[in-house]
Amino acid sequence: MTGSTEVELVGECARCLEPISDRMVVGFQELFVYEDQRNPSEEDDEVSTLEGDLVDLEPLLRDAVVLALPFQPLCEDDCPGLCPDCGARLKDDPDHAHDAPIDPRWAGLAALKQDQHDQN
Ligand SMILES: [Zn+2]
Ligand SMILES: [Zn+2]
């Protein structure tokens, strides 16, 4: 059996988590044998058998689609992802910037300074 099918893909960008949907055409090819013509001495589970006169395409399609899926789907090839500090989407806000983050070793001093400011 040889064929192809069009599948609809839904997922999210591996970098910015934006939902993405796509369509893909997947081809497949598989040899099916009749159950009663299967060689009983051959303990090969890889051989696909017909169920009566019917073919169960689901495992075949699932394997074909999974193999064709991108390992890390992206909303676009050069997706800049998310800001590591605040999680903003860098694609929406390319000039996104933060003041230099406070060194965690000095964070206590910043809080102290804030306290003094509040008292004044
Ligand atoms: Zn993205
Ligand atoms: Zn940010």
From TrEMBL:
UniProt-listed InterPro entries: YceD
A Pfam short name: YceD
Protein name: DUF177 domain-containing protein
